[in-house]
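DM from R.C. (forwarded with permission)

"hey, sorry to bug you on a friday — could you get me a structure for this? deadline for the figure draft is monday and I only need the backbone to look sensible"
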Amino acid sequence: MKREARFDPREAPAYRLSEAAHYLGLSASTLRAWTLGQRGFRPVISIADPRGKAMSFVNLVEAHVLAAIRRKHGVTLQSVRRALDYTRNRLGIDRPLAHQQFGTNGVDLFVERLGETINVSRSGQLAMARELRAHLERIERDPRGVPIKLYPFTRSAASGAGARAVVIDPRISFGRPVLASAGVPTAVLADRYKAGDSIDELAADFGASRDEIEEAIRCELALQAA
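My reply, with the result:
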């Protein structure tokens, strides 16, 4: 008897592009170009549901890694795609950005080819590699190296503020952001805050610090305003 494939929440099309763009600190137009293509160039990330314009958790991880380059260097979609194709071929991996091996020699392969394509100096390439690795550190993996959690930046990537206050875990709250220390959805915290609960009251109720509560609320309210 043929065994049914087990459902994997990490691969489910769970995030609208507008949601994912907010979680990653990107503009919706930038993420749309990376996932749906632009001006005749094919996408650099194959999303779970291109027709419905919905991303999976693994897609979110892939875009999170590429966002390290997009935030500071203004690299074109074509250049990124070429460097990513080169890295994919050299590693022999279909989705290198989500693969554990990208954190080792994959980063160097990608940055070296990207640097050659856009004529970036060696020091510039080293800076790119540092940024990529800083983003990779925010991905938690299981013993097989598969991504299971993502700790998104709740402010600018450079500030480091609220470094791990919020986590995205596809097994919790349908993959929506939650307070990392308590598992409560950021939407719940935001609703209670808007209803009149103070930061101190929420911190006491959930055994969290004021900073953690503030970062969680900031994340959710910014999404609603987007």
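R.C.: lifesaver. The chain has two domains: 8-145, 151-226.
me: no worries. Residues 47 and 59 are 6 Å apart (CA to CA).
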